[in-house]
Every structure is written in structure tokens, then in C-alpha cells.
Design goal:
The chain has a single domain, classed as Alpha-Beta Plaits (2-Layer Sandwich). With about 80 residues, it is α+β, with helices and mostly antiparallel strands. The chain has a 3-stranded antiparallel β-sheet with strand order 1-4-5, with no helix packed on it. Strands 2-3 form a two-stranded antiparallel sheet. It is built from 2 helices and 5 strands; from the N terminus they run E-H-E-E-H-E-E.
């Protein structure tokens, strides 16, 4: 199952990842504010993530990491590290 991680201190809350997510499972955190005063992005339902990587591709601050399995053989691909 793919996983998406957001580096909260890098996120400026631009919402590009929110807009581009085809499953609409990324939102800005309502209850958390980073040290720069921004609401960082959070995954609302990780079980629906397809690992497409669109969020990673559009993030101007490199705040997104996508980890996905390839081919069911246990290998993983890290995007964003």
C-alpha cells in the first residue's frame, strides 16, 4: 500500500497537492500550524492513496514523500528523498 508523508516544517500551505490529488484525500491541517505560521498538508484517508505521486510532483517546497510498492515483490520506490 502506498504511503504519503508531509514534512510539516517545509509546507507553506499552498494547496497545490490538495488540488492535484485525484482521490481528494489531501487537506490542510485545521488544528496544526508550523513554525512559519502555515497550516501544513495532511492525508485524510491513506487507504485510498494510489501512490500516483502527483502531490510530490507539484510541491514547490519538496515537502512530500511518496513511498509505493512495485510489482508486489516487496521492493519500494521513494519519491522525494
Amino acid at each position: 500500500m502506498p504511503q504519503v508523508f508531509f514534512e510539516n516544517e517545509r509546507c507553506k500551505g499552498c494547496e497545490l497537492c490538495v488540488t492535484v490529488c485525484p482521490k481528494k484525500i489531501i487537506a490542510l491541517s485545521a488544528g496544526e500550524i508550523n513554525s512559519f505560521g502555515f497550516h501544513p498538508a495532511v492525508l485524510t484517508d491513506g487507504t485510498k492513496c494510489t501512490g500516483c505521486g502527483f502531490c510530490f510532483l507539484v510541491c514547490p517546497d519538496l515537502a512530500v514523500t511518496v513511498v509505493r510498492e512495485e510489482g508486489g515483490n516487496g521492493e519500494s520506490t521513494d519519491e522525494g528523498e
